[in-house]
Write a structure and sequence with these properties.
The complex is a heterodimer of chains A (about 350) and B (about 260).
Chain A (H helix, E strand, L loop, with lengths): L3 E4 L2 E2 L2 E2 L1 H11 L5 E7 L3 H9 L4 E6 L8 H15 L3 E5 L2 H14 L3 E5 L1 E5 L2 E8 L4 E7 L4 E5 L16 E5 L10 E7 L12 E5 L18 H23 L2 E4 L1 H5 L20 E5 L5 H7 L4 E6 L12 E4 L2 H16 L2
Parallel strand pairs in A: 1-4, 1-6, 4-5, 5-12, 6-11, 7-11, 14-15, 14-16, 16-17, 17-18
Antiparallel strand pairs in A: 2-3, 8-9, 9-10
Helix pairs in contact in A: 3-4, 5-8
Chain B lengths: L1 E5 L2 E3 L6 E3 L2 E3 L5 E3 L1 H16 L3 E7 L5 H10 L3 E5 L9 H15 L4 E5 L10 H9 L3 E12 L4 E8 L2 E8 L2 E5 L11 H9 L4 E2 L1 H4 L8 E7 L9 E2 L5 H14 L4
Parallel strand pairs in B: 1-6, 1-8, 6-7, 7-13, 8-12, 9-12
Antiparallel strand pairs in B: 2-5, 3-4, 9-10, 10-11
Helix pairs in contact in B: 2-5, 3-4
The chains are: A alpha/beta (about 350), B alpha/beta (about 260).
The complex binds flavin-adenine dinucleotide.
Flavin-adenine dinucleotide (FAD) binds next to helix 6, helix 7, strand 17 and helix 8 of chain A.
Chain lengths: ~350, ~260
């Protein structure tokens, strides 16, 4: 029996935390855990995989794997799985994990259980919980073929503990597809302004349309257009929210209304058509709590809401609520938290 | 250039959902085109306009999925077809991908098969990469921009929105694409478009028409349930002024042990 495989997802050698969550989750299924590390100059990741519980590592280092490419990675994964026949393969739910799992399922004539929040052994197979309709419902799913391909939602499986005394056997494997046979080429990377890793964030502070609502802020004279003035005000507000976020080491999120109005990039959007997040602490500022927003953050551990309107639906979800103007509460809260957290 | 764009009919994102006898119930909420697919249709139309192409919208589902196709037609798609077959009732993502690939083959001469990022009902996001794999085409997913496309030389350059920023990739056509929100705001259907769409006869393809038998589904749904109700005891924090409220709130947050 070849046990459970875990695909260690990384970007330029930096692993997504969810990769190690997946190794820890694989341990709970019993049987040996093999981590797969593909790339170039990524041997260090193999050691970290052992620290988090892998028993063995399959390491593929090749120039053709230096940049992630779905075809190259999926082909290698499928080839190895055909040879060694693992029972299950786990991936973090990321753009990469989801897509390699999808391709491998076609190659291996199996199925994918995507973005699951729970897994458990069910006789000879694995049962998983997949939130559907943005988490408004839960579906229990299983795969009738082997290997079962399962992508795990980040932060749904708890934080794994590293044991730096652990080590194991690294087996080197070769790439499956020659460079000349690949149909794509990575030519560049660009960082995006306001890039945020909402999925991994333990604390998120989000702003909504209410962030634009501070008549006391006077835009510079050269801004004459009313819409531009509103955006300028909101951006000042998001700077203020950024300071609160910084005080807690938090990521900044937003409602769709704030994104659509041009206050903040789409990468920050939380909700049904943005990111679905599940931090330990979610602070909603000037967000009414529309069903599509709630779908994206309802599983957060502690929710705090600040809103002028005592009837805002967000308060029904909130552990702590403040009826008030965010422009008064946020700076005071930043100060209060800084004082307490510096002690 | 020939473009196939895939759309799905889903319950409105504002729908309140419940489970009745093991089936999803969305009450009287309307069915709409999957919001992510509107970006796919927009991208298909923009590419067709630029490269003198034609856009065919394809949906898989029951009779009501014709409404999603009509939305695509009203936005400007040139033709539409529905894949409908009782044997597809419990198709998983891989089975659906095999059907989508067969539809692309049946259309013939397709350069681009375009999808939205995922469907807001089943939330799998697997269709684009799976369909690409069945076809043996490159999968260029999560596209925020398509800076270059040469229909003659059959090459494409794309910007993928990945967790870490943007990855710029060059590939060959034919290819499968998936589109994200950064690409462009979807256009509203025009009045003329809506009129044209309302009169359109949408052909229905069965699996036999596609020349395939029902692909086997490996994923089984054993149960659908409502998530446990969120047990919150809400506490409103009040005080004489902002500083007092903030101090209390800061203490409460810290006491929760989440910082
Ligand atoms: C297909 C579809 C998908 C969608 N997907 C998403 C999604 O992914 N994410 C999402 O968020 N939404 C989504 N929506 C939109 C959603 O329906 C709401 O329109 C949106 O969430 C509202 O954002 P908001 O709460 O910021 O704005 P509003 O609803 O306008 O609320 C603003 C709030 O700010 C408060 N306020 C104003 N000024 C202040 C102040 N100075 N201090 C404190 N409070 C103040 C107000 O009382 C109000 O409650 C979607 C909608 C559709 C149709």
């Amino acid at each position: 029996m070849a046990g459970t495989w875990v695909y260690v997802d990384h970007f330029k050698g930096a692993a997504l935390p969810a990769s190690y969550e997946a190794i820890a989750a694989a341990k709970t299924l019993g049987g040996p855990v093999t981590a797969l590390v593909f790339g170039e100059g990524v041997e260090g990741l193999a050691q970290t995989a052992f620290h988090y519980g892998a028993d063995e590592v399959l390491l593929a280092e090749d120039a053709s794997l230096a940049d992630y490419r779905a075809e190259a990675y999926a082909s290698l994964l499928s080839k190895l799985a055909k040879e060694q026949q693992p029972d299950a393969m786990l991936f973090p739910t990321s753009t990469r994990g989801r897509e390699i799992a999808a391709m491998a399922a076609i190659d291996l004539d199996s199925g994918v259980l995507p973005d699951v929040t729970e897994i458990s052994k069910d006789g000879d197979s694995i049962a998983a919980t997949h939130p559907i309709y943005a988490g408004k419902l839960l579906s229990k799913v299983t795969v009738s073929a082997k290997p079962a391909l399962i992508t795990l939602r980040g932060r749904a499986f708890g934080k794994p503990v590293a044991d730096t005394s652990r080590s194991g056997n690294v087996t080197k494997v070769a790439a499956a597809v020659a460079e000349g046979d690949l149909q794509t080429k990575v030519v560049d990377y660009a960082t995006v302004e306001g890039r945020v890793s909402l999925a991994d964030a333990g604390v998120i502070v989000s702003g909504g349309r209410g962030v634009a609502n501070n008549p006391a802020l006077t835009p510079p004279a050269e801004i004459t257009d009313e819409k531009e003035k509103e955006i300028w005000r909101a951006q000042q507000g998001f700077l203020m929210i950024g300071e609160l976020a910084q005080a807690m080491g938090a990521a900044v999120g937003a409602s769709r209304a704030a994104v659509d109005a041009g206050y903040i990039p789409y990468a920050n959007q939380v909700g049904q058509t943005g990111k679905v997040v599940s931090p330990d602490l979610y602070i909603a500022l000037g967000i009414s709590g529309a069903i599509q927003h709630l779908a994206g953050m309802r599983t957060s551990k502690v929710i705090v809401a600040v809103n002028k309107d005592p009837d805002a639906p967000i308060f029904k979800m909130a552990r702590f609520g403040v009826v008030g103007d965010l422009y008064e509460i946020v700076p005071a809260l930043t100060k209060a938290l800084k004082e307490r957290l510096s002690k | 250039m020939k473009i196939a764009v895939f759309v799905k009919q889903v319950p409105d994102s504002a729908a309140k959902l419940s489970v009745d006898n093991g089936a999803v119930n969305w009450g009287d909420a309307p069915l709409v085109i999957n919001p992510w697919d509107e970006y796919a249709v927009e991208a298909a139309l923009q590419l067709a306009e630029k490269h003198n192409g034609e856009v065919a919208a394809i949906s898989m589902g029951g009779e009501d999925a014709k409404e999603a196709l009509k939305h695509a037609l009203a936005m400007g798609a040139g033709s539409a077809m529905l894949i409908s077959d009782a044997a597809l009732a419990n198709a998983d993502a891989a089975a659906a991908a095999k059907v989508f690939a067969a539809a692309v083959q049946k259309l013939g001469g397709v350069d681009l098969a375009i999808f939205g990022k995922q469907a807001i009902d089943s939330d799998t996001g697997l269709a684009p990469a799976m369909t690409a794999r069945v076809l043996g085409w490159p999968a260029l997913t999560m596209l925020a921009a398509i800076p270059a496309l040469d229909a003659g030389a059959k090459t494409i350059k794309v910007e993928r929105a990945i967790e870490e920023g943007r990855q710029v990739v060059e590939g060959k056509l034919p290819a499968v694409l998936s589109i994200v929100k950064d690409y462009a705001e979807p256009r509203y259907p025009s009045f003329m478009g809506i009129r044209k769409a309302s009169k359109a006869e949408i052909p229905v393809w069965s699996l036999a028409d596609l020349g395939i038998s029902a692909p086997e589904s490996k994923v089984r749904w054993t149960e659908i349930s409502a998530p446990p109700a969120r047990e919150v005891t809400s506490e409103m924090v009040t005080g004489a002024n902002a500083d007092e409220i903030a101090a209390k709130l800061a203490d409460l947050i810290i006491a929760e042990g989440v910082l």
